[in-house]
From TrEMBL:
A GO MF label: carbohydrate binding
A Pfam family hit: Cohesin
Record's protein name: Cohesin domain-containing protein
Native organism: hydrothermal vent metagenome
Domain Cohesin: 9-92
Coiled-coil ranges from the UniProt annotation: none
Gene Ontology BP terms: polysaccharide catabolic process
Length: 116
């Protein structure tokens, strides 16, 4: 699953929080996407708390930001049991511009993993 930013401008940092059904899914890996690629590597940290995944990406200093559309992180889940599992962004997710100024989110998404 990609954690994705769509048509954003002046982003210097992201906190993406994703809830998932830990009885049906487990996180296998989380890797940085290509959205924050530039001449300076960003800080990339994630924390998986058995049903809640927090991903943090940030540049050091206010002078570097990114704009556009792209993948922030790539999450690979392991399926524990068959059936549908909802994966959704929470309201704790946020984009930050330079100097940690919040950028308004126009919507948060969700998806369904249908394992057989």
């Amino acid at each position: 699953m990609d954690i994705f930013a769509l048509e954003v401008s002046g982003v210097g940092g992201v906190h993406a929080q994703v809830n998932y059904d830990a009885t049906k899914l487990s996180v296998t890996s989380v890797t940085a996407g290509s959205f924050f690629s530039s001449t300076q590597s960003p800080i990339f940290i994630y924390e998986d708390n058995n049903g809640t995944l927090d991903v943090y990406v940030s540049y050091l200093g206010p002078e570097i930001t990114v704009s556009g559309t792209g993948d922030i992180a790539v999450v690979v889940f392991n399926v524990k049991t068959s059936g549908e599992a909802i994966v959704r962004y929470t309201s704790e997710s946020e984009l930050l511009g330079s100097n940690d100024v919040p950028i308004k989110l126009n919507g948060l998404g969700q998806g369904v993993v249908n394992a057989k």
